Known about the structure:
By secondary structure, this protein is an alpha/beta fold. The protein has one domain: Phosphoglycerate mutase-like (Rossmann fold). It has helices spanning 45-55, 73-86, 109-115, 117-125, 139-155, 168-179; strands at residues 19-25, 66-69, 91-92, 161-166, 196-202, 205-214. It has a 6-stranded mixed sheet with strand order 3-2-4-1-5-6, with helices on both faces. β2, α2 and β3 (91-92) form a beta-alpha-beta unit. α3 (109-115) packs across α4 and α5 crosses α6 (168-179).
Amino acid sequence: MTHGRVRAREARQNGYVATRILLIRHAETDAGGRLCGSFDIPLSAAGRAQLEELLRHTAARPAPVALFTSTLRRAREVGCALGRAWGLLPQPAEWAREIDCGEVDGMPISQIQRERPELWARNEAQLDDTFAWPGGETYARFRSRVLDGLARTAATHAGRRIAVVTHAGVVSQVLGAIRGRPASAWRPDRPRPLTATEIAWTNGAPEAVVSYDDPDWW
């Protein structure tokens, strides 16, 4: 997948007005080799520097009409900063959190590979939408949670442009729904930190990718 702006088919209107949704991945973190789904880590020093650079540009662009943010700290830090720049109150969105990896969330990846090789292989195969880490969320449930949340949010801002600060896995699931990939195919379309992916949402569903992994979205 080529990084940057990617044009796609126009959203089908069918009598509905498309809502533009800007999906912003949080800035860089330092997971220290750990599996990081709902494991709640802050931005790294590099991530905070990225955010400071972004804030020097945001005032020059039109603000969205509403701002939502995952409740995980790494997204909230970005959402609160953007809220101050845009004059918007960030609204917490539990549905925009990264996938819950259950018992292994925050565990060193090398330990998971060593102690749970069969589970690791199943996840790497990306073939089973019912896969979940012990005590965690299935990929099917993850996609459903994200799309249901986006549907409710888009319905209250029909025909307007909103922003959501979220995570790579969330963006990948939305693009997977548009492009017909199974929910378990978690590897494609994972954006870089602090880039934005814009989609058009029409008639209760994501219809088109307007731009993907755009580093210059501000």
